[in-house]
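Reviewers of the previous submission asked for a worked example of the structure-prediction workflow described in the proposal, so we include one complete record here. The input consisted solely of the amino acid sequence. No template or homolog information was supplied to the procedure at any stage.
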Amino acid sequence: MTGLEHFPLPPHPDGTHWPTEAWPEGDLGHHVDQKRLNALLDRAFADEAPVDIAETHALVIVQKGRKVLERYWKDHGPDQTYKSWSMAKSITHALIGILVREGMIDIHGPADVPEWKEPGDPRESITLDQLLRMSSGLRFVEEYVEGIPSDVREMLYGSGRSDTAAFAASFPLEHEPGSFWSYSSGTTNIVARIAKRALDTDQAGFEAFMREELFEPIGMKSPNPWFDDAGTFIGSSFCFASARDFARFGTLYLRDGVWDGRRILPEGWVDYARTPTPQPETHDGLGYGAHWWRGIAGPKSFSANGYQGQFTVLEPELDLVLVRHGDTIGEEKIEALKAWISEVVDCFR
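From that input alone, the workflow returned the following structure tokens.
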């Protein structure tokens, strides 16, 4: 699907049961730099949160299909559901993949967006692929700082909240489609509505699709997806779940979209997610694929990233999934947090 070479995704180890019901437990092993790892964990989970990375509420690490580390901060635990924020974008990517598997969507054809169907509308040529790669060319201000104009805040909490996709689809082109990368939560809600339209269903039907085709087959019992008043999954931002369930979702992608012998995502879909999309090199110091980020824990890694430091990180070379939830706000702290995550993963090399 991509035409590019990627580091191979590791198969599930023989003799290790799939975590559909419960996670098999494992040891850190002699290959892990436990002294360095313990120092990183002690700092992150100190009674008083460190200034540089702020609060870490949950950390789950899975290696070779086994849960080898799990830690929670005070007043948090494994039964809680944690904010996804933009990790929900990667869940939206999975839902589109399922529709591709069923032959219900063509990502390279014009996107099914009613607002763009008027004759001569320059947005009519935007493809679903360009939306998934944040390269549609649509104007949209992704800003979370109070006092600065923000389309994403207006969409989630202001005039756009009742119909997030219609709000996002109303914006004009700022660049030629496919020529410019610009991160946009509005884009993902357009994509989520495209998925709903492909199924020709209502909110209840779409949630049933999410559970029956994605969550239940891989044992995700905790997800709480949010919908707007128009019945569209707010796939940009809102799918609460436990840290263990986010680790299951990461494992699905690390296993090339196959779970216990069942293909959930079409062949090549994970490689499509991690294929580079041209973007400004300065953006967060990371690369971007298709609704997944690239490079937080080394060049072979890819990740689902969310606001305030929510991360599901996959490192295929180490057969490792790391999930981190917390409350980290501010660019400098996020940069420090990404460095901390990279150090934690390095302890397993």
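Residues 331-346 form the longest helix (16 residues). We consider this example representative of the routine output the project will generate in years two and three.
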